[in-house]
Amino acid sequence: MAQQLTTIVFDLDGTLYVDHELALAIHQSACRYIAGLRSVTMEEADRLIRSTKERLTEATGWGTPLSGACRELGGDLPALHRHFAEEIDPAALIVPDNRVNELLSALAGRYGLYIYTNNNRFLTDRIVRTLGLPDVFRHTFTIEDTWRPKPDRETLQRHLAAIGAEAEECLFVGDRYDIDLRLPESLGSRVFLSRSVDELLTLQDHLNKSAGCSKIVRSSHPQKAPAEA
User: Fold this and answer.
1) Which long-range contacts (CB under 8 A, 24 or more apart) does 213-217 make?
2) Alpha-carbon torsion 204, 115, 122, 48, what sign?
3) Which biological process annotations from GO are given for this protein (predicted)?
4) To 10 degrees, the CA torsion angle through 184, 8, 64, 42?
5) pLDDT tens digits for 189-214?
6) Which residues touch 163 (CB under 8 Å, ≥6 apart)?
7) Contact (Cβ atoms closer than 8 angstroms) between residue 141 and residue 114
8) 3-42 b/e with 16+ CB inside 10 Å = b?
9) CA distance linking residue 151 with residue 178, whole number of Å
10) In the chain, which segments carry CATH 3.40.50.1000?
11) According to DSSP H, which parts of 164-210 are helical?
12) Does the domain formed by 7-18+96-212 have CATH 3.30.200.20?
């Protein structure tokens, strides 16, 4: 018999909001960081990041996030994320959607809600405030907890222990299957792939239909996602 679902773990960027301008701003900031680190042009830094992500993904069989590619290129993750925090103002780019707030408030009455993001604490807090998300999350896990970006088995297991839930009790919601969802799915979690706010808003209907079963919930097939940390 399937374990009862008690916990929902949300990715942040590209999941609780979708803004391609902010995703592009993060990627361009990473390019400036790598350009300075490697003494190359922005165009060359962009090529290095993209080719490194492709190479690592092919070598490991797992998706490679932006932070992982920058680390492979010699970057220091705390320094990279300080660079992001100094350069990026999410308030100038993203717009709140009250429908998401209503969904989260409704889900909080039934499940423990958490955020698990590859973003840093400073930008995560600013994004959450800008979106006006309700105070329903029991904890927010960021890259600063271990400086090991998703997907990372050791970090995921550490977060599950902190939550106090078995993988089978959790639903993970994200916009990048290989980075946000594939690893928790392999541990027995249910997963929901959401690539737009409209898809995210169908989550409650999917939960109602699959209540009490171990069915993997996925809103669409994996696709290429915008750049995120």
Assistant:
1) 213/2, 214/2, 214/3, 214/168, 214/190, 215/190, 216/185, 216/190, 216/191, 217/171, 217/190, 217/191, 217/192
2) negative
3) DNA repair
4) -170
5) 999 999 999 999 999 999 988 754 44
6) 7, 9, 112, 114, 138, 139, 170
7) yes
8) eebbbbbbbbbbbbbbbeebbebbbbbbbebbbebeeeee
9) 8
10) 7-18+96-212
11) 182-186, 197-200, 203-209
12) no
* Residue 208: alpha-carbon gap to chain centroid: 24
Residues in a beta bridge with 172:
9, 191
Nearest-CA neighbor of 151 among 139, 163, 140, 143?
Answer: 143
Determine the CATH number of domain 20-91: 1.10.150
pLDDT for residue 211: 59
Q: 210: which 2 tokens?
A: 């699959």
Token pair belonging to 186: 């392999």
Tell me the pLDDT tens digit for each residue of 104-127: 999 999 999 999 999 999 999 999
Give me the sheet containing 7-10, strands edge to edge. 137-141, 112-116, 7-10, 170-174, 190-193
The two structure tokens encoding residue 69: 């590619």
Q: Cα dist. 102→105, 140, 161, 212 in Å? A: 5, 19, 28, 23
CA distances from 119 to 26, 66, 142, 166 (A): 10, 10, 6, 24
> What type of residue is 66?
L
